[in-house]
TrEMBL record:
It is a multi-pass membrane protein. This is ABC transporter permease. It is found in: Cell membrane. It comes from the Bacteria. CDD domains: TM_PBP1_transp_AraH_like.
Length: 351
């Protein structure tokens, strides 16, 4: 009787485990189907374009956040980096770099993008140095950088907006608006950028020694160090990559709005964490997939836009997002317990 019952238990456990692993796709189908019926014009082409742009912003940050969380850390500064990088882009377009005596250096769109990306990577490097060299806890380090970056963004314009970022054809900066508003083969440029970054991140995570080291550090940092993994270098990379992703979002938002505001990016980090966790990234580190994160970003994006189209209060939207995060963490813990139970049952069957 015992031998007959054990395989059925293992089978049912395996089926439930599969459903838990596919929960993000199931959630995406569920919310999409619900809003297709409940929200007017949800299935319109115009709404898909707008929604895809919103999803792209969250997905960029969530991809960078996924690497950070897998390594066992957290990055609360990404929203502020978005605001700071947007202000840097606005400053370069409007003023360039003033050398004094009536001289200034002006930049074209490509140069502006490179400088802004380097700023994002530099802020990420500050996070990494605080954590790896000064042994500051990731939560505290990135919280401090959040305030510093937001303050720097405010100081750059005394809290004012940099408007009319149309650029100057004379300097080659007039193409800046195409980053957020342009299309290639009928698809927004920001989506093409997301595809490139997503494929790059997936390749790093699944096909390179660096990716394996990121998982190893998050799974067991001491064990990874003893096996020869350069833990500090790995942590530096994940925070710099997160800063890189945040810089891209700063560029896209400023381009879409044709303006930069120092408060841009507030609470963006919460959506990024929500998308990563919903996509199966474990907050305890060592587990997560880029594809799951992107799907999680779609769930958050569809949920947000659908609630707006239904006229749901922004206050209730915040409550619902919080409940989604809690549910994702609870389900993730249930999945871990079930995996352990199925593994033990499999070992008992073999014995």
């Amino acid at each position: 009787m015992m031998t007959a019952t054990a395989p059925r238990t293992t089978g049912s456990g395996s089926a439930l485990l599969l459903l838990l692993k596919l929960r993000t796709f199931i959630a995406l189908i569920a919310v999409f189907t619900f809003f297709a019926f409940a929200a007017p014009n949800f299935l319109s082409a115009a709404n898909f374009v707008i929604m895809s742009k919103h999803v792209a912003l969250n997905a960029f940050l969530a991809i960078g956040m996924t690497f950070v969380i897998i390594s066992g850390g957290i990055d609360l500064s990404v929203g502020s980096i978005v605001g700071l990088c947007g202000m840097v882009a606005g400053w370069l377009i409007l003023y360039g770099i003033d050398l004094g005596l009536g001289w200034s250096i002006q930049f074209n769109t490509l140069e502006i993008c490179l400088i802004v990306v380097l700023v994002g990577i530099a802020v990420g490097a500050v996070n990494g140095l605080l954590i790896t060299r000064l042994n500051v806890a990731p939560f505290i380090a990135t919280l401090g950088v959040l305030y510093v970056a937001r303050g720097a963004a405010m100081l750059s314009s005394d809290g004012r907006t940099f408007p009319n970022l149309n650029g100057n054809p004379e300097y080659g900066s007039d193409t800046f608006r195409l980053i957020g508003a342009g299309n290639l083969l009928g698809i927004p440029v920001s989506i093409w950028m997301l595809i490139v970054v997503g494929l790059l991140a997936s390749y790093i995570a699944n096909r390179t020694p660096l990716g394996r080291h990121i998982y190893a550090v998050g799974g067991n940092e001491r064990g990874a160090a003893l096996s020869g993994v350069k833990v500090k270098r790995v942590k530096m990379f994940v925070y710099m990559f997160s800063g890189f992703c945040a810089a891209l979002v700063g560029l896209i938002v400023s381009s879409q709005l044709v303006a930069s505001h120092p408060a841009t990016g507030e609470t963006f980090e919460l959506n990024a964490i929500a998308a990563a966790v919903l996509g199966g990234t474990s907050m305890s580190g060592g587990r997560g997939r880029i594809l799951g994160t992107v799907v999680g970003a779609f769930v958050i994006g569809v949920l947000s836009d659908g609630l707006v189209m239904m006229g749901v209060s922004s206050f209730w939207q915040t409550v619902i997002k919080g409940l989604v995060i809690i549910a994702a963490v609870v389900i993730d813990q249930a999945q871990q317990r079930l995996q352990a139970r199925v593994a033990l049952q499999a070992q008992a069957n073999l014995a």
